[in-house]
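Protein Record: Sequence and Backbone Structure Tokens
======================================================

Structure line: whole-number tokens from a learned vocabulary of local backbone shapes, matched to residues.

Purpose: to set a sequence beside its fold so the mapping can be learned.

___
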Amino acid sequence: MAEILIKNGFVIDPTRNINGDVTDIAIKDNRIVEEVGSNAKVIDARGKVVMAGGVDIHSHVAGPKVNVGRLMRPEDKLFKSPHGQDKYRMESGFSIPSTFKTGYDYARMGYAFVMEAAMPPLHAPHVHEEIHDTPIIDQAALPVFANNWFVFEYLKNGEIDNAAAYISWILSATKGYGVKVVNPGGTAAWAWGLNCNTLYDPVPYFDITPAEIITGLIETNEYLGLPHSVHMHQNGLGTPGNYEITLESLKLAEGYKAKNTFGRDTVMHSTHIQFHSYGGDSWGNFESKAREVMDYVNKQKSISIDLGCVTLDETTTMTADGPFEHHIQNLNHLKWANTDIELETAGGVVPYVYDKNIKVCGIQWAIGLEMGLYAEDKMRTFITTDHPNAGPFIRYPRIIKWLMSKKAREEVLASFKYSDKVIDATNIHSINTELSLYEIAQMTRAGPAKALGLSHMYGGLAAGMDANVGIFDLDYTNMPADPEEIERAFTRANWFIKSGEIVVKDGDVISHGNKRTLWVNARVKENPQVIRDIHDKFLKDYTVGSDTYHVRDYLVPNPLVIDIDVEA
């Protein structure tokens, strides 16, 4: 790889407490280094901002429900790429972009890594097929466990060691990264047309509650010492008054301490928290409870969150929370796909329009931003849209603009048909806070990398870290910039260097670079009972053999395996 020297840029790097210093970044052999030779390629970043590559902790970009969305929404493909490139593969899709457009768009924004946030173990080969076809960006995937029949039985019996052995097997077979929790117990109940509406509703036929599932998986995650904490989608998503069950769920993390092997200090990551911070008891008196939820998150240092900001677009909702997708379909009466994935999870897909003429949509828009503005620790608060549920990931620059500019927020607020009612139901109008570029770097780079246990590789610009560097057309000395300049700059990087190779120049993709798939191999002591359980239950309860789970090595041509030897 050629040596590269980035000179004269305003560097923003929270991992080293650098906030706008003019300093050089040297790159050699895929890594950031202290210095390079005189023949290095020089990039003059004078008058521009230099940051590490972005890290997206939660997105839905690969796998069966994404493909279901593509199949059931051919109209989404009418959104062609605005970039007019014909050098590489054709790009299509807006809320559900093709694999190629996914990689290209993340790269244009200067992102180096994205986490596929919900992988059904049974469909892991398909997830990795799509990851394999997505260019440039590094990726990993989180298998879902909170509605898995094996997990129910082990946790009900207090068998943390067996649950750990089973999760270890799943991670190895599916080449997964961590433990995803979706509507614990409720998705399993959906197989009988039911749900778990409180933390203490028993799952039908299993005699276990969501609270027991959550605490059991936290214990199992820390027993294994995985790089990332339990990644949690709470019960009650998207319903008025759900902030109460959200706070109850977050409080279950109290008393647990991270097995701090990879630099993380949290035991629970609460995802797309905007969808879980609603007050009122109906859509008529629906209101923001962002302050109440963030007051708790600010005090509880063992929790990290991502925002799930609404972007006011037409989009496609998709989640392993089957009951919620049925609820959405009952609200908007649009087309609907729902699936049950045997013994482990379910999924649903429904189109949705976040309309400025609808009061509820305006309140949802405000809640996500309020939470980012109320956050006292930006290293535990991350920018996402729960892509594509609250809007497409290509809107991250727009969210950054809104967080950095009260003027930009007020312009949107004034455009709502029911702006007075949105103001009454939220606090967004009274919040004068405007975030800095340093805080944005914490929320999109250093923070999510740390929460994923990857801060030794991603999120910063220290010597020895992966050479993922974005250069953006913003003058640090003229901040706050015009809001539209902020969005433009983060939508199309001037330069993006991924793993030491220039992949974007002047906002255009010029190389596919090299990408990696990350997965965790948590080796536990051989557990004969779990091995026997897997064999017996697949014969008795599944329609497929356990070999179906296994992701073949050819699907992961450039893997980065994180090995963990769990103490017996």
Remarks:
- The first strand starts at residue 4 and ends at 7.
- The chain is about 30% helix and 20% strand.
